Amino acid sequence: MIHYIYDGSFDGLLTAVYEAYYRKDNVYDIVPEDNIEENFLVQNIFIPTDGEKSSTVYKSIENKISREALRRIFYVYLSELPRHGIIILKYIQLGFKLGAQLDLNLSNDIVLMMNNIYAKVSRERHGMLGLLRFKELENGIFYGAIEPDYNIIGLIAPHFESRMTNENWIIHDVKRGVGVFYNKEEWVIRNIKPTDSLVMKEEEEEYQELWKEYFKSIAIENKINPKLQKRNMPMRYWKYLVEKH
Amino acid sequence: MEVLEKLRILSDAAKYDVSCSSSGSNRKNKNGGLGAAENSGICHSWSDDGRCISLLKILMTNYCIYDCAYCVNRFSNDLPRATFTPDEIVDLTINFYKRNYIEGLFLSSAVFKSPNHTMEMIFQVVKKLREEEKFNGYIHTKAIPGADKEIVEKVGKYVDRMSVNIELPTEEGLKLLAPKKNKESILKPMKLIKAGITQSIEETKKFRFSPKFVPAGQTTQLIVGATADSDLKVLRLSEGLYNSYGLKRVYYSAFIPVSTNPKLPAIKSPPLVRENRLYQADWLLRFYGFQSGELLDENKPDFDLALDPKCDWALRNINLFPVEINRADYNMLLRVPGIGVKSAMRIIQARRFSAIDFYDLKKLGIVLKRAQYFITCKGKHYGVKSMDGEIIRNYLTEKPIKFSNYQQLSLFDQVSIEDKYIEIGGQF
């Protein structure tokens, strides 16, 4: 069984797709390097990332399949789920046969799997637009921590860029140790070292108290329904919700 | 009084308004302001009753000149009263928004002094938010019944959505429980908003940058169960509002006993199932091509509480079923119980590539619990043998069997529905 190993970047994954095409290997999976599995039966082949090869694949997906397919591939890559690499490879191979019609073929297992993972990532992205909570730090920066299932900070950043244009803010993915930094002009993704000293602005706590009070008094006592609440707002997201502490 | 105290009183007083949607507007952030609206709407939290929180929903004041029997804020009710200043509301909205707690503001009010005076207070807040704070988030306000044209138009230019609550679906109901309101005073602002929206759409066609008027449309709310009105009356009213007033949504609110007034029905708990049935029927009107007359009529003026309106309709029209999933057109697919808009579109899409069988439907994520009785796939039917409405009704309304810890195992009990169709259909 051949496993292609890539460096974890999207370009790396697309390079692996390129190689799978031209080397004609019977690839069993495409795995990011920090997820390598040592197995007697597996032959690991490291694929060095190559910008030219990856952009060839990028462009041909866009031209021969669709922009929508490209977006799906990116979302599935961000899911970081097991076997996402091989699903993407098979999806692209199928796409080069079917062209723009690819995503309509819902009874195909690969298309369906792509569709389901894409839906999961989009759902979390949309959910996080609402569930992210900013705190105002002493220096006026708005800081929000999250621990999403999928690697979505890059997907939610444009949303906050368009509404918090005139503020400095940071969205910190604590689980992955990365963050989006915005400085009123542009945003970048950088690694964040664990830090425990965030000093809040004085009035921050006041607004948190107001929000908690609002959260309590807006619920109708005769209709209390914790099951519905948890279904809509899964408990794994409560850690950073001001109103749930 | 502290802001915290006011917030407690005035959000508590606003909570019976069920509308909380932040959808339908795509207001952009401009001139380096704060915020933007998202067309799909965004929920930011879910309160302990499981309802979505997307807006800061508060009353401007709960001092009221009216004494409507169904309402907590009626003046004869002894409860703490408060009034926000415009600055307090603006500060709360901006600071909640920056912390991503909310999508915007939903400002309502009890009627203070007069309808026009109350609207003027609301106007002060929205003007300040839009002009001084350059706030481009979502704003939903009430239009107070009885308010004049000028003030409704002034407010409409700043907000995304406006709503006038009808509350009681008939004039007799209003006379009994809200004697100071009448049909005309409620419908007047609704007509004004509709006219404003129509005019604004016309102007946008001519001048691309003409200011928008209530871009997310208007909504209303009906209380269910405070009067003896039937579901048919409620649903006909909704249908009329959608068709002739162009409403975006009608919300239904199960009546919650807030006083012991003898004019009100004595109920222990709010009629939540009935509320749910009305929402289901409302969806059927808006997205499924149903007419109110198909769902209910004079002989059957109320919904079956045990079965959803679509199933009920299908069972009464069982001669139309089963439909072949590979041939039925979109409109017919929509009428199959258990198949929604998304599922119907997926079926249409998937069958262009190859004929679909029962197993494919499962893969597409279509819930077959109800649909199985009403469809065939490639000519095969997996429901019950005879298309008898009564028999299917029994299957659909049967309660799931509860497993207790100590139970005698039996070969014949506890046959799941899934097993049943294996038995009957002979295959999975």
TrEMBL record, chain A:
Occurrences of domain DUF4130 (ranges): 86-243
Identify the domain of life.
Answer: Bacteria
InterPro entries reported for this sequence: DNA_repair_put, DUF4130
Q: What is this protein called?
A: DNA metabolism protein
Q: Report the source organism.
A: Tissierella pigra
TrEMBL record, chain B:
Q: Where is the Radical SAM core domain?
A: 59-195
Keyword presence, Iron-sulfur: yes
What keywords tag this UniProt record? Iron, Iron-sulfur, Metal-binding, S-adenosyl-L-methionine
What InterPro entries is this protein classified in? Aldolase_TIM (IPR013785), DNA_rSAM_put (IPR023874), Endo/Exo/Phosphatase_dom_1 (IPR051675), rSAM (IPR007197), rSAM_sf (IPR058240), RuvA_2-like (IPR010994)
Keyword Nucleotidyltransferase (UniProt): no
Q: Which GO terms describe its molecular function?
A: catalytic activity; iron-sulfur cluster binding; metal ion binding
Coiled-coil spans in chain: none
Task: Give start-end of the signal peptide.
Answer: none
Record PANTHER family: ENDONUCLEASE/EXONUCLEASE/PHOSPHATASE FAMILY DOMAIN-CONTAINING PROTEIN 1 (PTHR21180), TYPE II SECRETION SYSTEM PROTEIN K (PTHR21180:SF9)
What is the protein name stated in its UniProt record? Putative DNA modification/repair radical SAM protein
**Species per Swiss-Prot/TrEMBL record:** Tissierella pigra
Q: What is the lineage of its organism?
A: Bacteria, Bacillati, Bacillota, Tissierellia, Tissierellales
